[in-house]
Write a structure and sequence with these properties.
This protein is α+β, with helices and mostly antiparallel strands and 473 residues long. It has helices at 20-30, 58-61, 64-68, 116-125, 135-147, 153-161, 206-211, 250-255, 267-281, 297-307, 331-338, 343-346, 362-373, 411-418, 432-435, 443-446, 461-471; strands at 8-18, 38-45, 48-55, 73-81, 96-100, 103-110, 169-173, 178-182, 191-195, 200-203, 214-219, 225-229, 232-236, 247-248, 261-262, 265-266, 288-291, 315-317, 339-341, 350-355, 378-383, 422-425, 440-441. It has a 7-stranded antiparallel β-sheet with strand order 3-2-4-1-10-9-11.
Length: 473
């Protein structure tokens, strides 16, 4: 695949103590697809913050013993991470906790600031000392700085939003309040709901609400700040409407879980629509349609229904190969460990193979080889996204054109390189049909950026400095 997931944020709040850590655990499990590098939970026990964060998946970081060590609390925030800005080390585990003159704060962030390098440089020149390479710490620092003069934590966050650019869906916890906010463009999803027991739940995706028994109330609107406290639920909208709504279209294509609903649009239906469009724009005579698990399956079903070519399960995913799998040196070998072809399904067949994207082409080529080895007669690959042609500054882990195969080769050339009989991408002009409008960001496909393009991304600058320092020791 080559494109990595986002992060997942989660928060809970009640007017009385409850087993908040356990609820966060289940919420993070539902968001595990958004990041497998690290995760963490911070529980608010009457103003005392108790936390546990580490590298690994949710089941690796939180054992039964670890969860039982958390006290009951009235609030908690949680995070599962795939790093876009900053490397994969314990310092970058979230939620980030801050102790300052006006109290404590815990912050979880999904997204990527397009002006992170600029903000960090200015803060460092003013004397700020950073402990992580994550842009989340930049947000925490600016909010804390504003809090010194602001009358409330939500006002401090509102002032900070005047400075932040790019993608950020936030869940913030103070001793008395749980606050969530979404950037004015609404790049990343964020929603909230409520359980029958009266617990408010904030999450990156609606699937996490369902996982803890909460009913979706609505999405957090772009630019909106919502405050949950014992005084009720308050919405602040001073940043709403400041920018054109631009939800990341790749949330519908790949990032989000198919059973989630984002801004009123079913992810499952969006992916089926992509498959239907592919069947119309890139038809082919074939015997079966199969999808690459997991995000290619819904689009494959849509292609099958539109084309009347039977749908089948031709690739089987080993669901037990996760982050802890000790990968061999040859990256190609990992694909055959994770995926296998069912010869009873594919042997002698003309196949339409649906995947969500092609980045470098390496993985696609290996999947085609696996199907060839299983006896597939023809393989016609269809991709439920347009070709990646441009860097992304809002969270998708594509920071240059260097390794993008579509930047250097034509579609027929790519088909030949991956060993497919034919290849077709989703037309970029049809993306609006996936989310039901033109309120999306597709800058990685069309090069149209909603914000100013940063001159310096500062990506991994902190790690590079450490490496240089160690090399000089």
């Amino acid at each position: 695949m080559g494109v990595h997931e986002e992060c997942g944020v989660f928060g809970v709040m009640s007017d009385k103590p409850f087993v908040a850590a356990a609820m966060c655990y289940y919420g993070l499990y539902a968001l595990q697809h958004r990041g497998q590098e690290s995760c963490g939970i911070v529980v608010n026990d009457d103003g005392v913050f108790v936390s546990h964060k580490d590298l690994g998946t949710v089941s690796e970081v939180f054992s039964k013993t670890t969860l039982s060590s958390f006290p009951e609390g009235s609030m908690a925030v949680a995070h599962t991470r795939y790093g876009t800005t900053g490397g994969n080390n314990r310092n970058n585990c979230q939620p980030i906790e801050v102790n300052h003159q006006k109290g404590r704060m815990a912050l979880a962030h999904n997204g990527n600031l397009s002006n992170a390098a600029k903000l960090r440089s200015a803060l460092e020149l003013s004397g700020a000392i950073f402990h992580t390479s994550s842009d989340t710490e930049i947000i925490a620092y600016i909010v804390t700085k504003e809090r010194l003069t602001a009358p409330s934590i939500e006002e401090a966050l509102s002032r900070a939003m005047n400075t932040l650019e790019g993608a950020y869906s936030l869940v913030l916890m103070s001793p008395q309040k749980l606050i969530c906010a979404r950037d004015p463009h609404g790049f990343r999803p964020l929603c909230y709901g409520k359980t029958k027991d009266g617990v408010y739940v904030v999450a990156s995706e609606s699937c996490a609400l369902k996982a803890v028994g909460a009913e979706l109330i609505r999405d957090v609107e772009p630019g909106e700040i919502i405050i949950f406290s014992n005084d009720g639920v308050i919405s602040r909208r001073e940043h709403c409407g400041k920018a054109e709504k631009k939800i990341c279209i790749f949330e519908y294509i790949y990032f989000s879980r198919p059973d989630s609903v984002i801004d009123g649009r079913s992810v499952h239906k969006a992916r089926q629509t992509a498959g239907e469009i592919l069947a119309k724009t890139h038809p082919v005579d074939a015997d079966i349609v199969i999808g690459v698990p997991d995000s290619g399956l819904d689009a494959a079903l849509g292609y099958s229904r539109e084309s009347s070519i039977p749908y089948d399960i031709g690739l089987v995913k080993n669901k037990y190969v996760g982050r802890t799998f000790i990968a061999p040196r040859d990256r190609l070998d990992q694909v055959s460990i994770k995926l296998s072809a069912d010869e009873n399904v594919v042997f002698g067949k003309r196949i339409v193979l649906i995947d969500d994207s092609i980045v470098r082409g390496t993985t696609s080529g290996r999947i085609v080889s696996i199907l060839r080895a299983a006896g597939a007669k023809e393989i016609h690959m269809r991709v439920s996204a347009p070709p990646f042609l441009f860097p992304c500054y809002y969270g998708t882990d594509i920071d240059s054109q260097k390794n993008l195969i579509a930047c250097h080769h034509t579609v027929p050339e790519i088909a030949k390189m991956i060993g497919a009989d034919s290849l077709g991408f989703l037309p970029v002009q049809s993306l609006g049909k996936l989310c039901g409008g033109d309120h999306y960001c597709a800058s990685c496909f069309d090069g149209v950026y909603p914000t100013e393009i940063p001159a310096d991304t500062g990506k991994n600058r902190f790690e590079q400095r450490l490496s240089e320092k160690r090399g000089n020791l």
